[in-house]
Amino acid sequence: MPVVTFKVSGAENCVRVAGLPYVYIRTEAGGAVLPASCPHRGGPLNLASVDATGRRLVCPWHEQTVSLARLSRRVPAVRSGDTVTAVVRGPVDAPVELGHLPVSPELDAGT
Ligand code: FES
Predict the structure, then answer these.
(1) Distance in Å, CA 64 to ligand 1 centroid
(2) For the chain, what are the domain ranges?
(3) CB atoms within 10 A of CB 46
(4) Residues near ligand 1 with C-beta < 6 Å?
(5) 3-class DSSP state for residue 37?
C-alpha cells in the first residue's frame, strides 16, 4: 500500500493515488484523512456537510450519509504540523499525484 505525504490545507491538500483523491479534514471530532470520493457514486466528499450527530458526512450529490469513523479507519494517518502522512489502499507502485481540492467549511472546522 502506498505511503503518501501531503499538506493539510492549501495548494497541495489532496493526493490522488491511482486516480482516487484523498484529503485531510478537520471536524469538531478531530482530523482525519478521507477518500474524497463518495462510496455511492463518487460524489465529492470533500464538499460534504456533517450531520447533526457530528458522526456522519452528508454527500452533496444525493445526500446519503456515510460514517466519518468508517471512512477514517480506511486511511491510517499521522499529522505533523502542516503535513499529513497516510497509508492508502492500492498497489505500492500506484501513480501518486499532488493537487488541490476545495474543502467545505464544515470539514475545515477543527484545529
Ligand atoms: S454520490 Fe454521494 S450520495 Fe450519491
Answers:
(1) 6
(2) 3-107
(3) 24
(4) 38, 40-43, 59, 61-62, 64
(5) strand
